[in-house]
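ok so for the tutorial part 2 we go from a plain amino acid sequence to predicted structure tokens. step 1 is just haveing the sequence, like this:
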Amino acid sequence: MGLAGVLIGGAVLLLRTARATGSYLPLVVAGLAFLAGAGTLAVQGSEGTEPTLRLPDGGAPVPAASAGTVAAPCTAPPAVDAEALHHQAVDPDGFEHTVAELCARDGCSPVEVVGGAGDLGADIIATTPDGVRVVLQCKQYAGDHRVGSPDLQRFGGTCYAVHAADVAVLVTTSSFTAPALEYAASCGIVCVDGTELAAWTASTAPPPWTARGDQGSA
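step 2 — the prediction. this is what the tokens look like for a chain of 218 residues:
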């Protein structure tokens, strides 16, 4: 308001001077100067004030820059296709990968499939969300081919000493003999048979590393 009063007063003074002298040139020059100054003030005002948007519900104004910012989307765990967990529809190498998919689905990271020649009894090495190192051996056997004590003994000889497992798990699509379960119980290996694998796959049973050596019966 003060600036407007000064400008109006100056304009009146210039008009009186022009009438007294009979020349309107000073008035024209002053008018051009006034327009230039007003334009400069308008530009400065627009640069110094961040535009705002008012919410349609009458909420507080929101800076336009903030209103246009898109929040980063929440990252959901990757979905696992049912076919990726079809343990009987794959070969033994594929079975290792289906079990690895289960580990990843249930929060393990990283999950490494290390089975193959010279694997020294480990097919999968996974780390749980709370940092537990899980070593898994996978046996894709037919229903009438039970996992025996020799399988458990070979795995038991390397899972802790070689692979530094916190939890050792042997997973099969079949079942275990009584001597195999006895050996597993004696050295803390978790045994997951075909029925328990199906429950784990369907998420109706917890991951085997939560069992910590809790064994079933033959």
